[in-house]
């Protein structure tokens, strides 16, 4: 009964979804692409079936999927892929992963009709949802068809658990109908078990297996070596946080170079305007040329260059952790040897944050003012800063291995489905 009401609500909401997509397409044209795919209508020919289907809703999940996919293709060359997404940035990033013969479409809106058309059209052999994406009708339809659907690199924080428990008649059957769940941490596994999810392993976080782009990292470090001031980076900053950062760090005068890399590309212009309103000069990465231009603030307005930015920075503040948003992922910073200062809100990656802090690769502070004090203190203590850089690299290296475990388990299920 509850899923029938949920389905009715989603059917009634379809006109609202179309309007939302049209509004978002003004700033992000990718949302205007192939809109009918979201409702299970495709211009692609009906597929022969048998593909591995990976759903990665947004940019972060797609980057995790890229790590898993690289390992899958290493173990099983010629793997045929169907890749789905929910956001424009996720789809743009996912397009980079495609090889000849692979397919990419939007995730179907979770009505029974759209889901049915999606599954009828592509007939995947096995499905993988990345991290958090569990949709009741999609899971139920896969279960009814005997299509194994897994949740990989799974995470569930306490806040999300509480929300899912409030909707237990809907979320409980959805989690229970999954074929297998591979959690990032034991804490995630415990919370997922409370929802009835079939835990099949705690494999760690796939993002530890990411290898930073060596060329980007080298370029960033070369620029850092030639710089006049140490670079303090605000990595994956979120709305409302940049103003706090500028307010606190502009007080540091000319002693540090500020670098802001917003989490969402549609906010690049907004952050540029904010810097101008503060009376500070700005140089955007897109206009740097051969080297960073002189300015009070650098704006990292490019995609796929985080290794360059981390190589350029002496340390990074963690976006999403200075507002109650749960924090962004700090693993890539650690892999680049960049120490991290976190705000008080790290519930999205609580265990990784605590492990990094215990390893000496990260510090947690109460607010942005404390972050400024911690950053300046670290920059003023060269031996301590060097030790933190080494600790960050060692921390990232110590937790690798999730990709190989996940790929092995997934390929075993794929073989079972093909038998």
Report on this model:
This protein has 419 residues and is of the alpha/beta class. It has 18 helices and 14 strands. The strands form two sheets. A seven-stranded parallel β-sheet has the order 3-2-1-4-5-6-7, with helices on both faces. A seven-stranded parallel β-sheet has the order 10-11-9-8-12-13-14, sandwiched between helices. Strand 12 (315-318), helix 14 (331-335) and strand 13 form a beta-alpha-beta unit. Helix 3 packs parallel to helix 4 (88-95). It is globular.
In short:
The chain has 18 helices and 14 strands. The chain is an alpha/beta fold.
Features:
2 domains, 18 helices, Rossmann fold, 14 strands, alpha/beta
| Total domain count | 2
Tell me about the biggest sheet? 7 strands, parallel
CATH superfamily annotation of the largest domain: 3-Deoxy-D-manno-octulosonic-acid transferase, N-terminal domain
Q: Radius of gyration over alpha carbons?
A: 22 Å
Total strand count, please? 14
